[in-house]
Amino acid sequence: MRLLRTWRMPGSLLSLHVLPCTATAVPGAPDSGWPLQISRYSPVVPVKFRLAGVDDAEAIRQIYNREVLGSTVTFDLVARTPDDQLAWMDEHSGAHPAVVAVDEQGAVCGFGSLSPYRSRPAYRTTVEDSVYVHHDYQGRGVGRGLLTELVNL
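^ that's the sequence the OP posted. Answer follows.
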């Protein structure tokens, strides 16, 4: 179902926007179908999770660099080179691993990683997590699955 939302900004004309979302009736609600639970997310996509390998480096680099160059979700200012990515893969192959989500065709649709939080000895069991999802798979449960995998490592 497509839902329409309208609102009026002070001093402007009425705006009408189509929102890409789905709606389902809330259990126990009156038969009118309202209220609806509204979600802008698409159905969950089936993916498998595994530890990241060197063969995943380019796909991870593409996902990450899109965020570096087009958003503010990372504090990196320069896109990773292939050599930078291989060094990152090496850093995330031991105690602080990276995992990938792959779709039914085997394409990497997201990745997550653990990194040391601080270098002081008391923090050695504390980690920072990072999760990045390919833009075509965002809002479809991939990020949640990646974070779950990281927590369970």
